[in-house]
Amino acid sequence: MMTFNCLTIFPEMFSAFTGTSLCEKAITKQLVEIGMVNIRDYTEDKHNRVDDYPFGGGAGMLFMPQPLFDSFDMLEKKYAGKRCLNVYMSPAGKTLTQEAARRFAGYDVLNILCGHYEGVDQRVLDHCIDEEVSIGDYVLTGGELPAMVLMDCVMRYVPGVLSNDESVSEESFSGNLLEYPQYTRPSSFRGLEVPEVLLSGHHKNIAAWQRQQALLKTLRERPELLQQAELSDSDRAFLEKSQNRT
Ligand code: ADE
After folding, report:
1. Does the domain at residues 2-155 carry the CATH identifier 3.40.1280.10?
2. Of 17, 100, 190, 246, which one's alpha carbon is 20 to 30 angstroms from that of 48?
3. Is 35 helix (H, G, I), strand (E, B) or coil?
4. Rounded distance, CA 52 to CA 62, Å?
Protein backbone atom coordinates (compact mmCIF):
# COMPACT_ATOMS: atom_id res chain seq x y z
CA MET A 1 0.00 0.00 0.00
CA MET A 2 1.35 3.38 -0.99
CA THR A 3 0.07 6.53 0.69
CA PHE A 4 -0.15 9.97 -0.90
CA ASN A 5 -1.07 12.96 1.23
CA CYS A 6 -1.89 16.23 -0.52
CA LEU A 7 -1.40 19.41 1.48
CA THR A 8 -3.74 21.85 -0.19
CA ILE A 9 -6.18 24.70 0.31
CA PHE A 10 -8.46 23.17 -2.39
CA PRO A 11 -9.02 19.50 -1.44
CA GLU A 12 -12.22 19.42 -3.53
CA MET A 13 -10.13 19.72 -6.70
CA PHE A 14 -9.00 16.11 -6.26
CA SER A 15 -12.38 14.37 -6.16
CA ALA A 16 -12.72 13.74 -9.92
CA PHE A 17 -9.23 12.23 -9.94
CA THR A 18 -9.66 10.01 -6.89
CA GLY A 19 -13.18 8.96 -7.95
CA THR A 20 -12.46 7.86 -11.52
CA SER A 21 -10.82 5.10 -13.50
CA LEU A 22 -7.58 3.43 -12.42
CA CYS A 23 -7.10 5.71 -9.43
CA GLU A 24 -10.51 4.85 -7.99
CA LYS A 25 -9.81 1.12 -8.57
CA ALA A 26 -6.41 1.37 -6.90
CA ILE A 27 -8.00 3.00 -3.86
CA THR A 28 -10.83 0.43 -3.71
CA LYS A 29 -8.30 -2.40 -3.96
CA GLN A 30 -6.32 -0.73 -1.14
CA LEU A 31 -3.19 -0.55 -3.27
CA VAL A 32 -3.12 3.21 -2.90
CA GLU A 33 -4.47 5.63 -0.31
CA ILE A 34 -4.90 9.35 -1.00
CA GLY A 35 -5.30 11.61 2.02
CA MET A 36 -6.14 15.30 2.05
CA VAL A 37 -4.59 17.72 4.49
CA ASN A 38 -6.51 20.98 4.35
CA ILE A 39 -3.82 23.49 5.24
CA ARG A 40 -6.44 25.91 6.54
CA ASP A 41 -7.44 23.41 9.24
CA TYR A 42 -3.99 23.92 10.79
CA THR A 43 -3.83 27.70 10.97
CA GLU A 44 -3.76 29.36 14.35
CA ASP A 45 -4.68 32.71 12.80
CA LYS A 46 -7.96 33.97 14.23
CA HIS A 47 -9.19 34.92 10.73
CA ASN A 48 -8.18 31.51 9.36
CA ARG A 49 -5.51 33.03 7.14
CA VAL A 50 -2.76 30.84 5.68
CA ASP A 51 -0.93 33.52 3.66
CA ASP A 52 0.74 36.86 4.27
CA TYR A 53 2.69 39.61 2.50
CA PRO A 54 6.36 39.01 1.68
CA PHE A 55 9.00 40.86 3.72
CA GLY A 56 10.84 43.30 1.50
CA GLY A 57 7.80 43.83 -0.68
CA GLY A 58 6.94 42.34 -4.03
CA ALA A 59 3.83 41.06 -5.73
CA GLY A 60 1.47 38.53 -4.22
CA MET A 61 1.26 36.60 -0.98
CA LEU A 62 3.17 33.69 0.50
CA PHE A 63 2.05 30.66 2.49
CA MET A 64 3.12 31.45 6.04
CA PRO A 65 5.20 28.92 7.94
CA GLN A 66 2.99 28.00 10.94
CA PRO A 67 0.16 26.05 9.22
CA LEU A 68 2.65 24.17 7.03
CA PHE A 69 5.11 23.31 9.81
CA ASP A 70 2.17 22.04 11.90
CA SER A 71 0.79 20.02 8.96
CA PHE A 72 4.17 18.37 8.33
CA ASP A 73 4.64 17.75 12.10
CA MET A 74 1.29 15.95 12.15
CA LEU A 75 2.29 13.80 9.13
CA GLU A 76 5.68 12.99 10.62
CA LYS A 77 4.04 11.69 13.80
CA LYS A 78 1.29 9.84 11.94
CA TYR A 79 3.76 8.00 9.67
CA ALA A 80 6.64 7.53 12.10
CA GLY A 81 8.79 4.56 11.03
CA LYS A 82 7.60 4.68 7.39
CA ARG A 83 9.74 5.75 4.46
CA CYS A 84 8.36 9.24 3.79
CA LEU A 85 9.25 11.88 1.20
CA ASN A 86 7.99 15.45 1.32
CA VAL A 87 7.75 17.13 -2.06
CA TYR A 88 6.72 20.63 -3.09
CA MET A 89 5.09 21.10 -6.50
CA SER A 90 6.60 24.21 -8.03
CA PRO A 91 7.67 25.42 -11.48
CA ALA A 92 11.06 26.16 -9.86
CA GLY A 93 11.74 22.49 -9.09
CA LYS A 94 13.49 19.76 -11.04
CA THR A 95 11.37 18.58 -13.97
CA LEU A 96 9.55 15.31 -13.32
CA THR A 97 10.88 12.35 -15.31
CA GLN A 98 9.81 8.72 -15.64
CA GLU A 99 12.94 7.77 -13.72
CA ALA A 100 12.07 10.09 -10.82
CA ALA A 101 8.51 8.72 -10.74
CA ARG A 102 9.89 5.18 -10.43
CA ARG A 103 12.13 6.32 -7.58
CA PHE A 104 9.23 8.05 -5.75
CA ALA A 105 7.25 4.79 -5.97
CA GLY A 106 9.87 3.26 -3.63
CA TYR A 107 8.57 5.32 -0.67
CA ASP A 108 5.72 4.27 1.62
CA VAL A 109 4.38 7.80 1.93
CA LEU A 110 4.61 10.75 -0.46
CA ASN A 111 3.49 14.03 1.11
CA ILE A 112 2.80 16.57 -1.62
CA LEU A 113 2.59 20.28 -0.89
CA CYS A 114 0.51 22.16 -3.47
CA GLY A 115 1.68 25.73 -3.82
CA HIS A 116 -0.47 28.81 -4.35
CA TYR A 117 -0.10 32.56 -4.42
CA GLU A 118 3.48 33.59 -5.14
CA GLY A 119 5.00 30.73 -3.18
CA VAL A 120 5.98 29.54 0.25
CA ASP A 121 8.07 30.98 3.09
CA GLN A 122 11.61 29.72 2.44
CA ARG A 123 11.87 28.22 5.96
CA VAL A 124 9.22 25.66 4.94
CA LEU A 125 11.30 24.64 1.93
CA ASP A 126 14.48 24.49 4.03
CA HIS A 127 13.06 22.47 6.92
CA CYS A 128 10.02 20.52 5.71
CA ILE A 129 10.63 19.74 2.03
CA ASP A 130 12.96 17.07 0.61
CA GLU A 131 12.45 17.77 -3.10
CA GLU A 132 10.90 20.48 -5.26
CA VAL A 133 9.19 19.00 -8.34
CA SER A 134 8.02 20.76 -11.51
CA ILE A 135 5.88 19.07 -14.16
CA GLY A 136 7.27 21.24 -16.97
CA ASP A 137 8.46 24.67 -18.00
CA TYR A 138 5.15 26.51 -17.76
CA VAL A 139 3.33 28.15 -14.88
CA LEU A 140 -0.03 27.00 -13.49
CA THR A 141 -2.22 28.78 -10.93
CA GLY A 142 -1.57 26.16 -8.27
CA GLY A 143 0.12 22.89 -7.43
CA GLU A 144 -3.03 20.71 -7.34
CA LEU A 145 -2.99 19.65 -11.01
CA PRO A 146 0.77 18.99 -10.83
CA ALA A 147 0.18 16.88 -7.67
CA MET A 148 -2.37 14.78 -9.57
CA VAL A 149 0.07 14.40 -12.46
CA LEU A 150 2.73 13.22 -10.03
CA MET A 151 0.43 10.74 -8.24
CA ASP A 152 -0.88 9.37 -11.54
CA CYS A 153 2.63 8.82 -12.84
CA VAL A 154 3.93 7.28 -9.58
CA MET A 155 0.99 4.96 -8.87
CA ARG A 156 1.53 3.16 -12.19
CA TYR A 157 4.57 1.62 -10.50
CA VAL A 158 2.59 0.36 -7.49
CA PRO A 159 2.19 -3.41 -8.03
CA GLY A 160 -1.37 -4.32 -9.06
CA VAL A 161 -2.43 -0.84 -10.21
CA LEU A 162 -1.89 -1.72 -13.87
CA SER A 163 -3.55 -4.95 -14.91
CA ASN A 164 -0.63 -5.99 -17.08
CA ASP A 165 2.83 -5.35 -15.66
CA GLU A 166 4.32 -5.16 -19.13
CA SER A 167 2.64 -1.88 -19.89
CA VAL A 168 5.06 -0.18 -17.47
CA SER A 169 8.11 -1.34 -19.40
CA GLU A 170 6.92 -1.31 -23.02
CA GLU A 171 5.96 2.32 -23.25
CA SER A 172 7.25 5.63 -24.45
CA PHE A 173 10.36 6.60 -22.52
CA SER A 174 11.51 3.20 -21.43
CA GLY A 175 14.55 2.77 -23.60
CA ASN A 176 14.25 6.47 -24.44
CA LEU A 177 12.29 5.83 -27.63
CA LEU A 178 8.74 7.05 -28.26
CA GLU A 179 6.05 4.48 -29.02
CA TYR A 180 5.49 3.19 -32.54
CA PRO A 181 2.04 3.76 -34.13
CA GLN A 182 -0.63 1.14 -33.46
CA TYR A 183 -3.82 0.20 -35.29
CA THR A 184 -6.98 -1.74 -34.52
CA ARG A 185 -9.87 -3.01 -36.64
CA PRO A 186 -11.07 -2.38 -39.28
CA SER A 187 -8.01 -2.77 -41.51
CA SER A 188 -9.59 -0.35 -43.99
CA PHE A 189 -11.51 2.68 -42.67
CA ARG A 190 -12.75 5.48 -44.95
CA GLY A 191 -10.15 4.37 -47.44
CA LEU A 192 -7.36 4.65 -44.82
CA GLU A 193 -5.36 1.43 -44.75
CA VAL A 194 -3.46 -0.23 -41.90
CA PRO A 195 0.19 -0.81 -42.93
CA GLU A 196 0.41 -4.08 -44.84
CA VAL A 197 3.15 -5.61 -42.69
CA LEU A 198 0.93 -5.59 -39.56
CA LEU A 199 -1.58 -7.84 -41.34
CA SER A 200 1.11 -10.24 -42.56
CA GLY A 201 1.39 -12.36 -39.42
CA HIS A 202 5.17 -12.32 -39.90
CA HIS A 203 6.34 -11.54 -36.36
CA LYS A 204 9.94 -10.77 -37.19
CA ASN A 205 9.02 -8.29 -39.91
CA ILE A 206 6.42 -6.71 -37.66
CA ALA A 207 8.95 -6.25 -34.83
CA ALA A 208 11.47 -4.71 -37.26
CA TRP A 209 8.83 -2.31 -38.65
CA GLN A 210 7.76 -1.29 -35.12
CA ARG A 211 11.36 -0.62 -34.13
CA GLN A 212 11.92 1.55 -37.20
CA GLN A 213 8.69 3.45 -36.61
CA ALA A 214 9.72 4.13 -33.00
CA LEU A 215 13.08 5.41 -34.24
CA LEU A 216 11.40 7.65 -36.85
CA LYS A 217 8.86 9.03 -34.38
CA THR A 218 11.61 9.85 -31.89
CA LEU A 219 13.77 11.42 -34.61
CA ARG A 220 10.89 13.71 -35.65
CA GLU A 221 9.40 14.64 -32.27
CA ARG A 222 12.18 14.32 -29.68
CA PRO A 223 15.55 13.91 -31.42
CA GLU A 224 17.42 14.71 -28.18
CA LEU A 225 16.14 11.42 -26.70
CA LEU A 226 18.14 9.45 -29.26
CA GLN A 227 21.35 10.48 -27.48
CA GLN A 228 20.38 8.34 -24.47
CA ALA A 229 18.68 5.51 -26.36
CA GLU A 230 20.31 2.11 -26.69
CA LEU A 231 20.80 1.78 -30.43
CA SER A 232 22.07 -1.18 -32.42
CA ASP A 233 24.22 -0.81 -35.53
CA SER A 234 21.20 -1.43 -37.73
CA ASP A 235 19.21 1.22 -35.76
CA ARG A 236 21.99 3.71 -36.45
CA ALA A 237 22.16 2.80 -40.12
CA PHE A 238 18.38 3.21 -40.42
CA LEU A 239 18.45 6.62 -38.68
CA GLU A 240 21.25 7.84 -40.89
CA LYS A 241 19.38 6.78 -44.01
CA SER A 242 16.21 8.51 -42.74
CA GLN A 243 18.03 11.73 -41.88
CA ASN A 244 19.58 11.91 -45.34
CA ARG A 245 16.15 11.52 -46.87
CA THR A 246 14.56 14.45 -45.03
N1 ADE B 1 2.84 25.05 -9.83
C2 ADE B 1 2.63 25.97 -10.79
N3 ADE B 1 3.18 25.60 -11.94
C4 ADE B 1 3.77 24.39 -11.72
C5 ADE B 1 4.52 23.49 -12.53
N6 ADE B 1 4.79 23.73 -13.81
N7 ADE B 1 4.97 22.35 -11.97
C8 ADE B 1 4.71 22.08 -10.68
N9 ADE B 1 4.02 22.90 -9.86
C10 ADE B 1 3.54 24.05 -10.38
Report:
1. yes
2. 17
3. strand
4. 5
CB 218 within 8 A of CB 178: yes
- Determine the atom of ligand 1 nearest the C-alpha atom of 143: 1
Predicted pLDDT of residue 140: 97
Quick one: which atom of ligand 1 is closest to the CA of 138? Answer: 6
Residues with CB under 6 A from ligand 1: 89-91, 115, 134-136, 138-140, 143, 146
**Residue with CA nearest ligand 1 atom 2:** 140
Tell me: pLDDT of 232 over 90. Answer: yes
Q: Round to whole Å and give the CA distance between 49 and 39.
A: 10
- pLDDT tens per residue across span 112-160: 999 997 899 999 999 999 999 999 999 999 999 999 999 999 999 999 9
Give the fold, CATH level 3, of 172-245: Trp Operon Repressor; Chain A (1.10.1270)
Best substitution site from 112, 125, 131, 140 to test ligand 1's pocket, by max atoms within 8 Å of Cβ? Answer: 140
- Does the pLDDT at position 187 exceed 80? yes
Residue 53 near residue 94, CB atoms below 8 Å: no
Report domain extents, the chain: 2-155, 172-245
Run of H or E including 235? helix 233-245
The predicted pLDDT at position 171 comes to 64
Report field, pTM of the whole predicted structure over 0.70? yes
Same fold, 2-155 and 172-245: no
CA of residue 173 to ligand 1 center, whole Å: 22
Angle ∠(69,74,76) on CA atoms, nearest 5: 90
Closest C-alpha to ligand 1, atom 9: 90
